[in-house]
Structures are given as C-alpha cells and as structure tokens.
Amino acid sequence: MSISRNWLKAVSIAMICSITYVSCDNNENEDMVFGDFNPLNIDIMIVDEEGTNLLDPTVEGNWMDQPFQMTYLKDTYETSWIGDPILNIPPPSRLYVAYFHGLRCEQISVFENNNRVYYENKYKLVFGEFQGDEHQDLSMTFHVPYIETTYNIKVEYRFYLENYYDAYHTTRIWIDGKEVDSRPIKIVLPRRQTQPTQ
Predict the structure, then answer these.
(1) Which of 5-9, 24-28, 110-114, 119-123 tops mean pLDDT?
(2) Containing structural domain, residue 76
(3) Exposed, middle or buried, 189 (CB in 10 Å: 0-12/13-18/19+)?
(4) What is the pTM of this model?
(5) Does 90 share its domain with 52?
(6) What is the pLDDT of residues 145-157, one digit of tens each?
(7) Could you tell me if 132 and 156 lie in one domain?
(8) Which one of 34, 115, 176, 192 is most buried, by most CB atoms within 10 A?
(9) 193 lies in some domain
C-alpha cells in the first residue's frame, strides 16, 4: 500500500512540474511571431500604346519567348519561359522562405472565392523572389531584346509588423527616375513587325 502511495505522489509531482514548465515556456514566448508573409516580386507587363498585353501568344506582334534580361547586383538573368526548368525549388517548410528565381514568365491570375483563377493566354514577367518580411531597397536594369533600350528600375519596399494580426507593407517603384503607380509595372513597346532572326 505504501508503494502505491509513493508512486501516486511521484506521478502527481511530475505532472505538476510538466504543467508549470509548459506554462512558463508559453509566457516566455508569447511575443514570438510565426507567420507566413508573401514574398516581394517585381511584376512587369509588356504592353503596346493601347495597353494590349504583348505577352499574349494570340496577339499579332507579341513578345512571347523573346530574350528579355534583367541585371541585378552585377549578374544578368535570362527569362525563363513557360516550360523551362525552375531556377530554384524551395524545400518543404512550414514557414515560407523567399526563393530567388531570377526573371521568369508567369500566367496572370487572381483569387476569386478563395480559388486561384488563371487568365487564358495572359502572361507577365516576374523578377524575384525577395524576402517579404523585411525592408528592401532594390536597383535593377531591364533589357529589351533587339533594340537598344534599357529601363532602370528602383524599388523601395517597407514592411511593418505591429503584432501577428497587424502587418502591412508599402511599395514604391521608379522607372528611369520617374515614380510609377501601376502594379504590375508596364513597359510600353511596339508590336514586333517581323520575326527576328536568331
């Protein structure tokens, strides 16, 4: 009988210690934030003077599959088009970490009723990813193929976190020193008249 009482006491003490340890641990970490924040990407649309998307393969004189480039931190990145291998594949993780893919083509999409809806034959160029939960000051140069035209792009991204439920960011973008409001940013080009020879 005495053995049973001692065993019950030991179990009770162990349970009390465990509860106390967990409670203290939670109090110490109550200010920790664990959440996913969208990465920063620089989205670019190629349009004509009328605003027609020239990254639409059904549009005459479109610019699909042309060798656009982006120079960033002294490195130049070629465009990865649909079907090309992905530059970096993020590993499985609960916390989303931005992975830099360089310059790539993506199908334009929107969220409707919690579902992603893709626009048929509508594409944009995307440069990134950059970490979305910290300030970013970026400078890059966008190169248009076949014509001697470059666009200097500057991005000022600010991330603010008051608490887990109150996070926001601001983004300002300049092209050749002029601030632009459109998102994605728009590069106006003429329609291609003939297929360039490679």
Answers:
(1) 119-123
(2) 40-188
(3) middle
(4) 0.75
(5) yes
(6) 998 889 999 999 9
(7) yes
(8) 192
(9) no
